[in-house]
Specification:
Layout lengths: L1 H14 L7 H33 L2 H4 L5 H14 L4 H17 L5 H14 L3 H18 L2 H13 L5 H15 L27 E7 L4 H16 L4 E7 L4 H11 L5 E2 L8 H6 L6 E5 L5 E4 L6 H12 L12
Parallel strand pairs: 1-2, 2-3
Antiparallel strand pairs: 1-4, 4-5
Helix pairs in contact: 1-2, 1-5, 1-7, 2-4, 2-5, 4-5, 5-6, 5-7, 6-7, 7-8, 7-9, 8-9
Length: 327
């Protein structure tokens, strides 16, 4: 996906056309065309080297170097900075994502380059792309502070756009709620009209997020309900619906005879609860211990019973665990 975004940035930069027929515009277009041809030649040289490096065995990589390619991209940036600035910035994004991050694994260096692009690029499209891709690297590292700083940096740019600022906020929250961290204190009231505590003493809590119109979510809901019934002594489940019709969820619960507490504010993906948790896919889940510490994020529904069983056996060992073959 990142490679596609970078390619589109470079293509868009190469195809930008000024409508004004004045001589200065013609000169700029000529310079841009020269830069585009230069990038095509450079990309044809660099891409095979990146692929070969990625496919090489670990010991073979020690004999390979991409320093010449890095230097060539740097030279292209310097040479096209004045004549085709958007292409120059897009090339820096390519250097950060495709060379430093994806090929060499130099994640911190990639974030530094992308952050400079966010701080200095004049193109709204390039700036947003650099911010999102830097945030993606930081999110996978669980670097909440780094994403927060990136959000502030992107928000300070005059051409920053609200949708991208919101995406960065979601990515920050997704990085925040990882295993080992404390799940946020939330003011919950279930659709059944009962307060929903964050935790219950002596029990694991599964916060399950779903969208009923998604077949995968409905299937996952069935599995979650089954595990909840089987492990009711040590597991309680809270279901958060991303649907926009709470009455439909109430009817679904009635039709299926579900006893799981559910929450639905009717705001769908714009729900403050979903935003706070960084939810961008359905289904999603958080397994918590009885102290609200996150143990697992996104347990596949097909593995939920096994994961919950393992945690229970570790924390509350008993001689009569389900599926335990011992006497």
């Amino acid at each position: 996906m990142i490679a596609t975004i970078v390619s589109l940035l470079l293509l868009a930069a190469a195809l930008t056309v000024q409508s004004s027929p004045d001589p200065a515009a013609v000169e700029r277009e000529a310079a841009r065309a020269v830069a585009s041809e230069a990038w095509d030649r450079l990309y044809s040289r660099v891409a095979p080297k990146l692929l070969a490096y990625r496919n090489a065995e670990e010991e073979q990589r020690a004999t390979l170097s991409l320093e010449d390619e890095i230097a060539a991209i740097g030279a292209f940036v310097r040479e096209s900075r004045e004549s085709a600035p958007e292409m120059a910035w897009a090339a820096r994004v390519f250097l950060a994502t495709q060379v430093f991050s994806e090929t060499l694994g130099r994640k911190r260096e990639a974030v530094e380059v992308l952050s400079r692009v966010v701080a200095e690029a004049d193109s709204a499209m390039v700036t947003a792309s650099a911010a999102l891709q830097a945030a993606d690297i930081l999110m996978k590292q669980g670097d909440v502070e780094g994403i927060e700083q990136l959000r502030e940096l992107y928000g300070s740019r005059s051409h920053s756009e609200l949708p991208y600022r919101e995406i960065l906020e979601e990515m920050e929250n997704k990085a925040r709620w990882r295993p080992g961290r404390e799940f946020p204190e939330l003011d919950w009231m279930s659709g059944q009209g009962q307060p929903v505590p964050r935790t219950v003493a002596g029990k694991l809590s599964l916060v399950f997020v779903f969208l009923s119109e998604h077949p995968a979510s409905r299937e996952a809901l069935d599995r979650v309900a089954k595990v909840a019934a089987e492990r009711s002594d040590r597991l309680r489940v809270v279901a958060i619906s991303l649907d926009e019709d709470p009455k439909a969820i109430a009817q679904l619960w009635k039709d299926q005879g579900l006893e799981i507490p559910w929450i639905c504010d009717g705001q769908g993906w714009k729900s403050p609860l979903a935003r706070k948790l960084g939810i961008s896919t359905s289904p999603a889940s958080f397994l918590l211990d009885d102290q609200a510490t996150i143990l697992h994020v996104g347990v596949p529904p097909t593995e939920l019973g096994e994961v919950v069983g393992d945690v229970i056996r570790t924390r509350w060992p008993t001689p009569a665990e389900p599926n335990d073959s011992s006497e």
